[in-house]
Structure formats: C-alpha cells, structure tokens
Specification:
Bound molecules: S-adenosylmethionine
Strand order of the largest sheet of chain B: 1-2-3-4
Distance between the termini of chain A: 42 Å
Distance between the termini of chain B: 24 Å
Shape of chain B: globular
Number of strands of chain B: 4
Number of helices of chain B: 4
Oligomer: heterodimer
Number of helices of chain A: 7
C-alpha cells in the first residue's frame, strides 16, 4: 500500500470516523499542526494592530489549525470534505463556523470578503483528485485585495510544487514558495504564499526559516486579477475502465463524434464505415 | 452556522450568476454568547450585505436591526450590540440554505451547511 495517504483513498473515505479520532488525539499531530498554523499566520502578515480578522481555513479537518486562529482571537470559517473530521471539530467545540465542502469545487463565498486564507497540510490532496469531471482548481476570489493565502502542503515532489506555483503565478497571484528548514528532510516544510491583487511592498516574499538563519525563496509577481490556482498531477492509479467485450458500438462513437463537433473539432463525417470492426490484417 | 457566515456564502453552482443571498430555512436555532469586539465589527462592517443580514436575523426571530445602516452608526454602542448579536451570536443548527436562482437545497445539519456540489453542478 502506498505510504502517502493521498494515494490510498479519496479524503472523505480516508478520514473516516476512526482516522479522524486517531488524528485528533495524537499529541504529536496536535503539536505539529499548531506550530504550522502559527507559522502560516506569521506568513499571512496581517496588519499588526490587534484587530481580529475574518479568515478562511481550507481543509480545516477537526479544527486543530482553526484553534490556533481562535487563540489569536480571529474569526474563521473552516471547510472540509470529510464529515467525520468535522464531527470531531464539533465535539471539540471549535469557535469557527464549519462547512462541508470540496475545496476543488470552487469556494461558495462572495468575492472579496475574506481577510486571509490558510490551509494546513491539505492541498496535496487536490493533486490526487478523484472526480473525473475536472482538473481541480482552488478558487480564491473570496480574498480581499492585497489579502494573502498561505498554503502549507506536502508536495509529492519538486516538479509538482513547481507546477502548482507556476499556475498560481499565471493566474495573477504574487508570491512564491517559502521553504522552512530546507536542509533537513524531517523538518522541511513548504508554504505557498500568495498575495492577491497588484504586488505591493507587503507582497514581497517573506524569508524562510533555516537552521543557520540563511534565507531561500523563490520570487515572482504579476498584475492581473484572477484568482485560481490549478492543481493537478494525478498519481493515484486510475480505476481500470470496464470495457465490455463488444467494444463501444456505433451509437457511442457517433455520439462522441457529435460532442467533438460541438466543441469545434474537425471530425470526419459519419458513414457506413463508422465504428465498423476492422478485420485483423497482417 | 452564524449569520456572519450566511452573509458571506453564495451559491456556486455552475451557471448561477447571482447566488446571493441564499434563502434561509430555519428549523432550529440557538444563541451562544461571545465577547463583543468593536474593532472586529468595524473592520467587517463594509463587507456585510446589510439587507441580507436584516432578513436573516428576522428569520431567526431577532427584529432589532434597523433597515438601513451606515458607518457612522458604528459609534453607537447600542447599534454595535445589536449588530454583534445578529452577526455572531445567532446560530442556525438545523435547516437549509436555498439557492436563489435554482432552488437547490443545501441542508444544514448540526450547524454545518452541506455545500458539496454534484458533479454536474461543478
Ligand atoms: C492532514 S488534515 C489537516 C487538517 C487541519 N488543517 C489540521 O491542521 O489539523 C487534511 C484535511 O484536508 C481535508 N481535505 C482533503 N481534500 C479536501 C478537499 N478536496 N476539500 C476539502 N478538504 C479536503 C481532509 O478531509 C483532511 O481533514
């Protein structure tokens, strides 16, 4: 069985009742998620005026990350695709409001209302989307101008991370990746820091934490206003498609060709030869 | 779900152009006290769709909010108290949110709206 949980089952099945409870009672996990959230908050760089903000926690799970937001007096909305994780959050009486939602389906929030978004250890799930319908996209239009999203994730490899970052930049986010503790395999942590709207002083990429105080970061910016990060690179082996012995049949082929025509592709006309079985010639 | 959240939610079903506000169907609601923070209220006020908040709070049996509001009212403690109560202390526990354009029903159970879309709605 693959070691990365995203490769085993879709999140709403992986985080079932048992896993949700196991996750939330591990003192090691509680500590790590708390620390990651504190760091994400630091990178969000909210104005230092003591005013509580209105934040979004994407993939909030059982509320371990959200609790850190509440400790700092912020109000938040958390969304998660796993009902079992949200049930544990309810038991823990978290202060944020919870939504059962799929971050890959676009967020059901009005544009420009959120002061900042965080996501802790959740985005990598999008890279293994199971729904055949769409390439998953994280839409962040709900952020106010100049607001940041800090997404801590466990990329499967450098290429995947680069792809996600490039997509964010193309969509008009400024920012890049902050890698904390890059020289330690265990402590190494990736934060995608995105600022929406035109780059400003405050959208300069923050410095990473290193063992020796050295910084390393990747920088880029852009002007447009479009706030979608596409995330792909499916790794889970796809289910084998059931093929019935007879093949798809003429009807299916004709329908498919019609669909392609509607999309503007040039498709050969339907004739008596369409979808006819070919003899095996050698 | 607090009315703060209701005020931010908008139906994102494919093809829907105006998914706000979601109509609120209340079967059960509760009140939970929270500390009032004037700074938070002042910061969030410009982002609130006032009419939607007034209607939602009335649906929850709280008729105290004025029909119209403007920033200068934030200096009144009496106003802040009402705004705070409507926004942060009233919770919908059971009920539904209904898309204004399609009539699609998003059920609310144990205070959590189920906003998951079917594949053909994405
Ligand atoms: C490792 S947990 C992190 C939870 C929480 N942020 C924390 O720090 O404890 C990852 C969470 O991402 C959620 N998740 C995965 N894919 C998701 C999706 N498409 N939409 C919403 N949540 C998702 C999972 O259900 C799970 O609760």
């Amino acid at each position: 069985m693959p070691s990365r949980p995203e490769l085993r089952a879709p999140p709403e099945f992986f985080y079932n009742e048992e896993e949700a409870r196991k996750y939330t009672t591990s003192s090691r996990i509680i500590e790590i998620q708390g620390k990651l959230t504190e760091r994400a908050l630091e990178l969000l760089a909210l104005p230092d005026d003591g005013v509580p903000r209105f934040l979004l926690d994407i993939g909030c799970g059982s509320g371990l990350s959200g609790e850190t937001l509440s400790e700092k007096e912020h109000h938040w909305i958390g969304l998660d695709i796993s009902k079992s994780m949200l049930d544990v959050a309810l038991e823990r009486e978290v202060d944020g409001d919870l939504l059962l939602a799929d971050m890959g389906q676009g967020l059901a929030l009005r544009p420009g209302v959120i002061d900042g978004a965080i996501s802790i250890s959740a985005i990598q799930w999008l890279c293994n989307a199971d729904k055949s319908s769409n390439e998953p996209r994280l839409r962040l239009k709900c952020l106010t101008r100049g607001a940041r999203a800090v997404l801590q994730l466990y990329p499967e490899n450098e290429a995947q991370l680069e792809m996600i970052t490039a997509s964010a930049m193309r969509s008009g986010f400024a920012g890049g990746v902050v890698v904390d503790f890059p020289h330690s395999t265990r402590a190494k942590k990736y934060f995608l820091v995105l600022t929406c709207g035109p780059p400003s002083l405050s959208s300069a990429l923050p410095k990473a934490k290193t063992e020796d105080g050295e910084s390393c970061s990747d920088d880029s910016d852009s002007d447009e206003e479009n706030k979608t990060v596409s995330i792909s690179d499916r790794r889970r082996p796809r289910k084998k498609q059931k093929v019935n012995k007879k093949g798809k049949g003429r009807e299916w082929v004709v329908k498919k060709k019609e669909q392609m025509r509607k999309k503007g592709h040039s498709v050969p006309p339907d004739t008596k030869y369409t979808a006819r079985k070919r003899k095996a010639h050698f | 779900m607090r009315l703060l959240t209701h005020n931010m939610l908008s139906s994102n079903i494919k093809g829907v152009t105006n998914g706000f506000p979601l109509r609120l169907q209340v079967e059960k609601s509760v009140e939970k006290e929270v500390d009032l923070n004037p700074d938070f209220l002042k910061n969030i006020f410009p982002k609130i769709e006032w009419k939607a908040l007034v209607d939602a709070s009335r649906a929850l049996g709280y008729p105290e909010l004025p029909d119209e509001a403007e920033p200068s009212m934030l200096d009144s403690h009496d106003f802040l108290k009402k705004f705070h109560h409507a926004l942060l202390e009233l919770h919908v526990e059971e009920g539904a949110l209904i898309c204004p354009e399609t009539g699609r029903n998003f059920p609310i159970s144990k205070g959590i709206p189920n906003m998951l879309l079917h594949e053909d709605e994405v």
